[in-house]
Amino acid sequence: MQHLPNDTIDVLLDQFGQIETITGDPNFPTTTDAWGGNDTVTATLSQPEAEVTIFGDDNTTLHGQSHGGNDTLTVNFNYGWNTALVVGDAQAMTDDARGGNDTIDTEDKSLYTNAHVFGDVAGDMSGNSHGGSDTIIGEVGWRGYDNIYAGDAGGSMSGTAQGGNDTLNINLDTREGSVRISGDAIGSIGGDAHGGNDNINLTMSGDNVWAGASVSGDSSTSLTDNAQGGDDILTVKISTQYTDDARDVMFGDAPTMSGNAHGGNDILTGGAATDRLYGDAEVYNPATPGSITGGRDILNGGAGNDQLSGGGNSDTFVFNAGSGNDLITDFDQGNKAVGSTVAEHDLINVHDYGFADWTALSKLISDNAAGDAVVHLSANDTITLDGVHAANLHPTDFII
Fold first, then answer.
1. For residue 165, which phi and psi values (nearest 5 degrees)?
2. Is the dihedral of CA 28, 190, 221, 236 positive or negative?
3. Got the DSSP string for 67-92?
4. What is the pLDDT of residue 32?
5. Is residue 81 part of a domain?
6. Would you state the pLDDT for residue 174?
7. How many structural domains comprise the chain?
8. How confident is the model at residue 1 (pLDDT cuts 50, 70, 90)?
9. Does some domain include residue 71?
10. Which of 269, 118, 254 is nearest to 200 (CA)?
């Protein structure tokens, strides 16, 4: 296999409206297998309306047994009104191609600047291609409304494609702006494709008055066919005085699951805001009743008044002291959403509150006017269980 050289490339965009496309391995072979070099590419944008596109290898399709290099790609935004597309490897991957283990840094504090960042390909992964284990660092500046990050693909994943085990650390540091983050693909994951085991950390800081975020462990769109989600860790941290205005929604797998999709065993932790956490998905369209399988997820809304939905299978809901007034929408009811009659056993972990035993806790559980059980953890913290009566709760439903 041909091994391409390791290159160091520095490009300055210092003209108004300047547009540049940079490839770490230009003219990447398309008729034979090749291994990309371990390239270092740095682009600095110092004028408005400048746009840069970076491919760690080349704007082509990696096929056969070709392998992307382990690249380091950096974009410095020094002005504003800029756009960047940064891709760890190539436009697409198919056959048995592999992405490199890339490091991408696009930290941005400037105005009206947007970045699309993908760990492996800008488009689709198909065949038996595998994404690399990439590290992506990003920051969204003021009024950046079109910021997208994915550990593997900007498009879809199909066939038996496999996502890498990626780490994404994104900071939404803006008064107005938004970000969409996925551990694997922005588009759908279908066929027999499999998401990687990803670690996603989102920090919402600054004056997040009109700021929002969507975080998905596997796909920002859907898991369908026989696709399977990875075992992902999603964490949101809130560092802003406007906690009531910062908005985020987290999906352990994807917003929608259909066909015979299988969710991963995910860990979701919200911040001090009004979070919405879905262990698997929000919408389910099974091929046949019960054909979708949820993962065994752990959900912790953190502080703030949160909405928690575990989805199918047996999940654990964790509440720490100061958790706020939270709602569990589907306690022991997640399988119904996929048409399954299989019993599940969700758990509520309130160990952090220090109750002596079930007797002490049970005295603090009662039904509200709608007939839903409410667990009064403290003067300021409650858990409401939609569709569950207090009389139906037992010691085995809690971790005390």
1. -95, 95
2. negative
3. B----EEEEEE-SBS-EEEEESSEEE
4. 87
5. yes
6. 73
7. 1
8. confident
9. yes
10. 269
